[in-house]
Amino acid sequence: MGYLLLVLATIAWSFVGVLVKTASTMVDSSIITFSRFFFGVVFLGIFLLIKDGRVQLRSGLKWIWIGAVGKSVNYIFENIAITIGYSYGNILVQPIQTVTLLLASAYLFKEKVTLRGWFAASLCMIGVIVIGWNGVSLHTLMQGSGLTTLLFTLAGIGAAVHVLSQRSLARTMDSGNMNFSVFLWSTMLVSLPIPFQSQGFSGTVSVWAWAALILLGVITGLSFFWFAEAMRRVSFVVVAIVGNCSVLFSIVWSYLFYHEPITWYVLGGTLVFIAGFLIMNFPIRRRSVDKAAATATA
Length: 298
Hints:
Elements: H1 2-14, H2 16-23, H3 29-52, H4 62-84, H5 93-107, H6 115-133, H7 138-169, H8 175-191, H9 194-197, H10 207-233, H11 236-244, H12 246-258, H13 264-281, H14 288-294
Main location: membrane
Domain EamA: 1-132, 150-281
Protein name: DMT family transporter
């Protein structure tokens, strides 16, 4: 069962870019962000009611709000970047998240980071730089692709803040109710600017776009639970390997569904930061930050 949950989470995360791109043909990024949280809360709430018979909403813990802000930042910038760029671009979020967590552990929590950890982080950043550059000229980079890399970088930092909040909240809350609380307050936060900046339904209304919005909600609501349950039942090495395969699937889906150009720079950069993930997570003795750094986000 653990392997099935791990595969479900991995495949679900790999489809995020394609689903956001599909939804963007009907609504703008603000509505996509709101829908990811809104439908996620709905599906997670239903699941918890069926599983436990109740839902516990918490608001009095500071890490709930820190997590809500971090996840909101993650989705806001990720959705904008995917809308204006390539659907596979969100593969940059994971290495940025990993490096941010490593820096937070070293400078905020004063945890010792090994030379292996810094080397792995360097590989992650090299991979991000290679993918962000993608062999284009400086002029082209400044005009467009550089902007999407910056947006994905901000999204990765937000994702790291969310992971840090999960690590803190996990001491007192189960993963289901923790994510329900964080996602509900995130829904409230991202809904605030919609009346002032959103264009709403900016494209053609279609069944596929609606399906994409709903599936994004399913992924937001349930994939974190699947992954948390998988980590309890499957060895961490397997989790690290299979979980990181989502970035490879993302590239495949972007080519199959949208025929987006996959250059050798993208493939090479991806392999470099995956190598960084594996180097960071394969040692027998792993620090807690290593586990957090390997946690992917949808």
